[in-house]
Amino acid sequence: MKLPVYLYGHPVLRKVAEPVTADREGLKELLANMYETMYASEGVGLAAPQVGLSERIVVIDADPVGETFPECAGRKLTLINPEIEVLDGERVSRAEGCLSLPGLSENVGRTEHIRLRWVDENFEAHEEEISGFLARIVQHECDHLEGKVYIDHISPIRKQLIRSKLNNIVGGKIRCDYPVRFAPRRKA
Predict the structure, then answer these.
(1) What residues form DSSP beta bridges with 46?
(2) What is the widest separation between alpha-carbon atoms in the chain?
(3) Which residue among the candidates 25, 85, 141, 146 is catalytic per the annotation?
(4) What does the alpha-carbon distance between residue 172 and residue 119 come to, in Å, rounded to a whole number?
(5) Residues 170, 172, 174, 176, Cα dihedral to 10°
(6) Three-state DSSP class for 180?
(7) What is the helix, strand, coil percentage profile of the chain, to 5?
(8) Is 124 annotated as catalytic?
């Protein structure tokens, strides 16, 4: 089942997500729905806060960008309670977009070499060093679990330049090709 993607301005996107336990009911169904939502929205990653759940869950299928970024080819990850350790390396600036900020793209500097620890859908532990664009995708999605969005990494000047676009998202003055949930309207 496709879930609505919660858009910029919705409070759930600013909460630090809660850890998930092995007895979480409906986990397999949620994961299937998150993958379906990600594919229908043409994304390569989706975090639970983006579907309204403040839980430490991320799904990634980086294969669609595998021709451009070989480290992404065939990479599909289900991350529960992920932990990132940024390893040494220079910061690389690349354009990022987000399903929760439709129509926007900004250059974000990130270190593209990380160590990732997580449990999968069966709560089996994993650890892996990840580099390149795949590391960027993982960091972007895990930011959502910390109540952050990628524009939190851009300069105040850039934020000011896109302010009207952000206001349009918050105000519901945009159209998407996928189901969305806008921020609740504030009472005057």
Answers:
(1) 59
(2) 51
(3) 141
(4) 36
(5) 100
(6) strand
(7) 30, 25, 40
(8) no
Tokens of 134: 């795949």
Per-residue pLDDT of the chain (188 residues; tens, 9 = 90+): 999 999 999 999 999 999 999 999 999 999 999 999 999 999 999 999 999 999 999 999 999 999 999 999 999 999 999 999 999 778 999 999 999 999 999 999 999 999 999 999 999 999 999 999 999 999 999 999 999 999 999 999 999 999 999 999 999 999 999 999 999 986 65
pTM as predicted: 0.96
Integer angstrom CA distances of residue 51 from 9, 58, 127, 138, 142: 13, 11, 26, 17, 14
Structure tokens at 159: 């934020």
**C-beta separation of 136 from 93 below 8 A:** no
